[in-house]
Amino acid sequence: MTITNPLLLQNPIESVDTVSAEHVEPAVKQIIAENQAIIDSLLHQKAQGDKPTNWQNLMLPLEILEDRLGKVWSPVSHLNSVCNNESLRKAYDSALALLTDYSTKLGQNKELFKLTEELYNQRETLQLSQSKCHILKDSLLGFKLSGMHLNDEQQAEYSNIQQRLAELSSKYEQNLMDSTMAWSCAIDDKADLSGLPSTELAMLAANAQAKEQSGYLITLEIPSYLAIMTYADNRSLREKVYRAYATRASAHADDSSFDNSAIMSELLTLKYQKAQLLGFENYAQLSIQSKMAESPEQVIGFLQDLNQAARERALAEFETLKAFANESGIENFSAWDVGYFSEKLKQKNFKISQAELRPYFVVDKVIQGLFELTEHHFGVNIKAQADVSVWNSDVRYYEISRDGQLLASFYLDLYARPHKRGGAWMDDYQSRFKMSASSAQTPIAFLTCNFAPPVNNQPAQLTHDEVVTLFHEFGHGLHHMLTQVDELSASGIANVPWDAVELPSQFMENFCYQPEVIEKLSQHVDSGESLPKALLDRLIAAKNFQSAMAMVRQLEFGLFDMKIHNQTPLDAAGIQQVLDQTREQVAVSIPPSYNRFQNGFSHIFSGGYAAGYYSYKWAEVLSADAFSLFEEQGIMNPDCGNAFLTHILEKGGSADPMDLFVAFRDRKPNVDALLRHSGIQ
After folding, report:
1. To pair with 655 at 20 to 30 A between CA atoms, which of 107, 225, 289, 661?
2. Average pLDDT, whole number, for the chain?
3. Which residues contact 428 (CB under 8 A, 6 or more apart)?
């Protein structure tokens, strides 16, 4: 029989360019129905008691079903993020409801729980591997957090909550995307854009051309927004763009129809109700169950300790910045002045700017240098492959191999465009999975960024900050792709606690400041020369410029997130009050009263970081300490690279992350390396 729905093919990603909204719901319905039938049959066989339960006849079949469903849903979820449109959005939301119901019922299946518990209790008799034991232990926790122990009425309530949470999270992200796209500012007179480097001007001109307009077009996509906030001499223009960005998806936006305020309040209420149902005091206590940290109080203490270490330095940095702006006649120093005068002050102190660096970081050379570093440390080869189905002509596809054997592959989608979610992220299409003794499925990853695209027939050029972002996401990708775990449930980033998953990504960032690495990344777009030593020295010297300000900003986000989830539900006014109070304690720069950062804080309201945003700083302690081994033994020491590969990247979620770190570093982590890397003693 001919299969007309590409999502029902054996490997849907190979036909991703043919997937449309009409394919989504029928495919998801069919796979869910098939999976449910197989699960019912499996449980029936187990009820007959013909064979004792083991990994091969319980967990392996369940993982095969999970893998098949993932191959249908992953392309849909990805396309919804990078090629969003109204029809796909509706199809996505409809299918998401089906998936939420399916996963909730699976997590509440008492027969599956009993069989999993039985298998876990027999782990020593069956001589199960460490990875399998770790999966089973975490699976039992998953059943508990899915409401398996609840009565029928409570389970129905839990299911309703899960459905509404999924619906609201999707709507939050849609509102943010729509609000971002709804605003633009046309500029006819180039003089109004004085201060912008030629690359940024060319980008804004290309924005206008794409809309069949003349002149220049400012949007709220990150490359455009940062161009204005960093370089525009026109202060009133900076204020206008800042206000538009800071009020996205709020009642203060020019178009208030995308306001996320009520959605945030309902999300917090539902998460609180879910936690109470499961026997926890609040959502933060529920969230922490599956993380490295032991309690919300421990997290808050950790963040407050970092704030105590950084705050005095951060205040001094901010006062220096204000004084510098005052010298230019700025008396009422404001939020839209911070980026602009920070760039000017960096130029004054270090004779360096992102604009000056950009021509040296041509995208292809950066990618080549990143690959060479990866190949050196982790013993792999990375090659581009053509004639592959992609969702946009800018997307590239690569394969990773070792000794001629394919290990993994990935799609690289670098540039900002309309209908693409902002930010940068790694997601997976499929994970390493050994379904039989003879073959293992190779991982496939999506690596997504939002850099300024190439214009005027010149290759794209990255700021150094964007180079760091690329390395960060590639670190996530390596964690997913270089795993050697055979079980799907612990392969790559699967089963890695949320506050440990940022370790490889933040670890990779450190290489972006090493002379040996920068030499391989840099090549001037015109002259072809590497970054000159004088400029390199200034880049390294400027690494910790305003690092304390940057740290307290992240601490503000982490504390705000933990606080709003560590209490009874808040309405929009209450959310704002907690944010204001947190800023009073932590922030050195208080934004205008109309700022609605929280309305666009998708990490916690539509991503997976609710009561978990602290993970960035928590994992940065691990990553800084991990990288200190390379600093001690040589940045390009292949033995260090092999150790990181063996103990961290290859192990995925097969063991407790603290045990993996200790195996790598021969001791537990401490915060000293993070403070040293940040220039904070």
Report:
1. 107
2. 96
3. 74, 443, 444, 445, 446, 480, 492, 493
The single-letter DSSP state of residue 411 is E
Written as one letter, the residue type at 486 is D
> From CA 184, how far away is CA 193, in angstroms rounded?
15
The Cα–Cα gap between 573 and 395 comes to 42
Angle between helices 21-48 and 110-121 (to 10 degrees): 60
CA atoms of 459 and 368, how far apart (whole Å): 14
The answer as to CATH 1.10.1370.40 being correct for domain 359-531 is yes
Of 197, 252, 254, give the one whose Cα is nearest residue 228: 197
pLDDT of residue 681: 73
> 436: which residues sit within 8 A by CB, 6+ positions away?
none
Please answer whether residues 183 and 254 qualify as being in contact, where contact means their C-beta atoms are separated by less than 8 angstroms: yes
> CATH number of the domain at 6-107+109-145, out of 1.20.1050.40, 1.10.760.10, 1.10.10.10, 1.10.150.240?
1.20.1050.40
Query: Residue 156 has which token pair?
Result: 């129905």
DSSP, res 122: T
Section 17-38 average pLDDT: 98
Q: How far apart are CA 4 and CA 2, in angstroms?
A: 6
Domain positions in the chain are 6-107+109-145, 183-258, 359-531
State in Å, rounded, how far the first CA of the chain is from the last one.
Answer: 68
Burial 423-434 (b: 16+ CB within 10 A, else e): ebbbbbbbbbbb
Task: Say if residues 175 and 248 touch (Cβ distance below 8 Å).
Answer: no
Instruction: Find all residues with CB under 8 Å of 557, minimum gap 6, and list them.
Output: 601, 603, 613
Q: What is the per-residue pLDDT across 85-118, written as a single tens digit (0 to 9) for each?
A: 999 999 999 999 999 999 999 999 999 999 999 9
Active-site amino acid positions:
473
Q: Are 477 and 447 in contact (CB under 8 A)?
A: yes
pTM for this predicted structure:
0.96
DSSP per-residue letters across 481-527 = HS----SGGGSTTTT--TTTTTHHHHHHHGGGG-HHHHHHH-B-TTT
* Contact between residue 238 and residue 340 where contact means Cβ atoms under 8 Å apart: yes
| Stretch 499-520: mean pLDDT | 96
Q: Encoding tokens for residue 183?
A: 């605003």
d(C-alpha 119, C-alpha 61), whole Å: 14
Please report, for residues 26, 192, 224, 233, the alpha-carbon distance to residue 219 in angstroms, rounded to integers and kept in the order given.
37, 15, 6, 18
